[in-house]
Each structure stands twice: as structure tokens, then as C-alpha cells.
Write the C-alpha cells for this entry.
Amino acid sequence: MPEVKTAAIIGGGVIGGGWSARLLENGIDLRVYDPAPDAQAKLDAVCANAEQAFAALSQIRCAERGSVSWQQTAAAAASGADLIIESVPERLDIKRAVYTEIETAAAADAIITSSTSGIMPTELQAEMKHPERLMVAHPFNPVYLLPLVELVAGEKTDVKYIEWGKRFFAGIGMHPLHCRVEIEGFLSDRLQEALWREALWLLHDKVATAEEIDTAIAYGPGLRWAQMGTMQTFHLAGGEGGMRAMLAMFGPCLKWPWTKLMDVPELSDEFVDEVGEQCEQQAGGLSPRDLERVRDSNLIAILQALRGNNWGAGKTLANYEQQLMQATSDG
Amino acid sequence: MPEVKTAAIIGGGVIGGGWSARLLENGIDLRVYDPAPDAQAKLDAVCANAEQAFAALSQIRCAERGSVSWQQTAAAAASGADLIIESVPERLDIKRAVYTEIETAAAADAIITSSTSGIMPTELQAEMKHPERLMVAHPFNPVYLLPLVELVAGEKTDVKYIEWGKRFFAGIGMHPLHCRVEIEGFLSDRLQEALWREALWLLHDKVATAEEIDTAIAYGPGLRWAQMGTMQTFHLAGGEGGMRAMLAMFGPCLKWPWTKLMDVPELSDEFVDEVGEQCEQQAGGLSPRDLERVRDSNLIAILQALRGNNWGAGKTLANYEQQLMQATSDG
């Protein structure tokens, strides 16, 4: 499998842009394709944000940033790339058409990853000529700061690519999580969606505003989830008896009507409007772009805090810095 | 309404113990009732942890810690208390019996709060002589570090207690969230339970282990939730278009089978065993007590990081310190 010197970025939106920033910071050259007229300006803005974020996160940096070459087609971007990262809209037909085009131009040993949030790789690879080299590598926004990347193989994926992915993504400062069972939504988005559905119901039924719903997370459970997931957190809710005591105490509550289990609110124009308006109010005059800078600054502070304690995502950061220092002293 | 000089703690488990620690650190004297034989030793351990945690969190401290007086009955604890905090097991019959006993001894103007995770206050107060002074004040573990407290009125609660609660709990360093609509599970636990249900299914169906499920949160979405809830986070998933663009892109996915919506896994002995064992393995030899210290140390680091940015729970901490400094310079 190739060492990645050049990567193709197919789709330069929030996720493709985030990938670009992380790869560039790690010295990888990019061939980018995105048909949107303002794609280049947007990507430049994301990369500028990310460069500042990386500088604030750590004093240890990769020696030389990568370069960007814009291409007119997905095939042209894929040509000559060691790794091809697809981040186009979440529609199976669009993604399959992109793979067909990519395969006309990609090198025989190029690896193709999809950033899909939850479409099964077996579905994605069904019409490919060389399906064995496609896998899901699902990152999280902002891709240049959050370490998690879910690796998922389809039925036809060669498992050697999963092993390769574990090494490669760890090498660019990420925390690869191999989702061993192929399931729609994988792990992280299933958990996120459960929360998200309930949040939409609460807003829809006028139980609470967007801001109140977020307060209920960010001032309580969210502070725990930055360091421990829901299982380990609840392992500590049972006192010295751990999870077993917790299940004995709170298990029965799971059967009480504490969530809107059965359905999804209708995303009518009116409801979308209501949600959108509340989120804009909540932002208190900050544009999404402004708010991104606040979020990044908070993420950096949290990651540094966790690194100080050598825990969770802070450990990932510490390991990454150690690798960079090693590479510098070797080179 | 009384200034709180003395509070009664009815039930000294994980939550009652956490309340005790926070109140003592704020100079409030306690009258504690818990029938468990080892209750006093446990409470002392929690308070010792909390004292260290407070010292590490902030150099600004309340001048004089409160004192603890152990009582033999709930009535004796309630007698002479300005505020009575009930944190007994999540069973309506047990809680109602406790209120009946408390009311035989409580001062006429004493306020009674329940720490219930989700039982509706209208249910709790149904058999009380003076139901107007009962409300829910639902905190989060560890109560001495997490700022969130949900305030919920029942049908018979006098709203003046909600206003009082907003002031009082802010005064002891918390972030009161008034849940305006009475609903089972309130806000935070509805959101937590949605996640928790999905996590249990993933483990139950052997899609992932406890550790993998937690990795899917703590290395990605959890780092966002420490500072922004799910609404504001997704407001930033749509790029410059914010939440409206996000809903246009990902709204349809909500209808895909990305969560186990319909049911709850059966908590059989075998399943409880499996969950318990995985959580113990995940802890890697750390007892729940050890792990609590790690968690507290991480929470302190995260809260300080957010205070450095004057954001979210960090703002709560900064406000609290300002109040303490003000009080010191006044006194």
C-alpha cells in the first residue's frame, strides 16, 4: 500500500475542507475537485482557520505544509493520488457515480475512502470495478481538530486496508475506531442521532427552545462526555457498585416514557424555519463562521486540558506530538 | 423565603453526597439522614474528594466550610432546616413517604426540593399538606463540580420558589435551568436516555463493546458537547448556511434506520452481567472510586479551559468566583 504523498479531495464542503486542512498540515499535497463556484474561497477560509488552530494547539508542527492543486473533474483529481477521499452529498446515486468516474483515472493501488456519515460501505462499493479498495473513513467536524475517525469495511473491502487506515490516520493525529460490525449510521452517528431526534421533538413540541436544550447538555452531561462516554460515565453513577449498581437503580427508568421513541418530527418548512430561527437567535449575532472560531478555540483549550491529564483525546494529541518530534529528529 | 444557613440532606448516596459537598463548601451547615450503615464513611469520602477538587478548581474559596450533623430520622434532619433536599431512590412511593415524614417536622417556610432524575413534581407533591413548596432541583454527578441544575415546578408549586431557586443555586456556583414545561425526564435526562438506550442496544446486539461505544463519543462528539449542545453543534455542520443548510443536507437521514427507535433491551441478569463486566474491563483496573478522581481532575481541567475562554460552564465558574470575591470584600 502506498505512502500517502498526494491525496485527492472530492467535495470541498465542511467535511472535505476539514480533511484538506488536516492533510495539508501534515505535509500531504492535495488535488481538489468541487464544482461549486465559491469552493476555492471557502476552502481557503477553512484552511486559514485550521492553520491558526494548529498553531494554537501545539508548538510542534510538521516541517512543510502540503500544496493545493485545483482540478476540473473528479477523475482529474483522482489521477496520480495515493489516497482519494470522497466527501460529496449523502446520496447513494451521487456517491456511486463519483466512484465510477474516479475508477477511470485512479492508480491501481490508490485507496478510496468515503466520508459518509452512515451509508453502509457494502452499498457504496456495489457497482465498483475494484470494490476491495473502498472503505468508510468517517471523520467529525472540525476534521482538523477532532481526533475520531470511524473505519468501516464493506463486504468486499480487503481487510488489509483497515489495518493500513489505523496506521495512516493515527499518523496524522487521529484516533481511528474500527467499527467491526457494518451497520447503518456506524457507532457515533447512531448515538448522535438518538440525541438529535429527541432534541428535535422537544423543540417541536415547544417543551424547550434550542438554547434550553443545549444548556441541558453543555452545563452538565456534555462536560462528562468530553472525557468519558455514556457507559463509563454511568459506571460512575452507581457509586462503588459501578455499572451493576447503576442498572439496578436506574434500569427500570428505561421503560418509563422518558423519550419520544417512536417517530421523527415532520421536517415541514415551518418547522425547519422555527429550528433555524432559534439557532440563529441562540448564536446571539455570531455568524456560523464566527462561532466556528469560538468552537475551535474551546476545542483547543479542552484538548490541551486533557493532554495535561494524559487522558482520552489528550493522549491522542500527546502521541501525535511525539511522532512529529521523532520524525523531526530522524529527518 | 429563608436565607439558607442550614440544609437537610435526606439520602446520602452519590447525589445526596455530592449535594452535601457543594453545600458544605459554600458554608452551609447540614443535617443529614441516611439509614445505610456505611453512609457516614461514604459521605466523608465524597466530601474529602470534593474538598480537594474545589481547591484545585479555584483559589477563591468560601471563608468557612459548613458542618455536618447526622440525624436518626428524616424528620429529625428536616427539623430546623431552611432547605430540605431529598435524594432517595427513584420510587414514587418511597419519595412520597419521605415527604409525609418531613412535613411533620419541617419549618413552615422551609423549601423542599427533590433530586429526582425524571419523576414529575406534580406526582411527587400529590399527597403533601403544603405541596406549593416542593419543586424539583435535579443536579448532575458529580454535583460538586457540574454546574447544571434543572428546576421544575409541579402544578401546585408556587412559582416564587422557582425564582428563589434561580438565585440560590447560582449563588452556590450552579447554572439553574428552568424547565418550563413539566415533562417526564425533564430535558437533560431525556437527551441522555436517548443516547443511553442506543448504547445499550449496540452492546446488546454485539455491534460494539462498552469501550468502543465510549470511544465513538469521547474522541469526537463529546468534545463538542462540553461547550455546545447538539443544536448549536449542528448549526455549525451546515457551513455558512447554519442549521437550515444542515437540515436540508441531513434532515432526510433522520428517517433512515440509524437508531434502534422502537424498544428497550431486556435487562436480563445475563445482559446486566455483560454490561457490568465490559465496564469493569474498560476501567482497566481502576475502581469506580479511582476513576472518579480521574474524572474530577479532567472536569476541573475542562472547566478551567472554558473559563479561560469565558464560555459556557467556564462563565458560570467565573461568575461564581466574582460573587465570592464580592462577598469577601463586603464582609
Q: What stands out?
A: The longest strand of chain B covers residues 134-139. The CA atoms of residues 45 and 319 of chain B lie 28 Å apart.
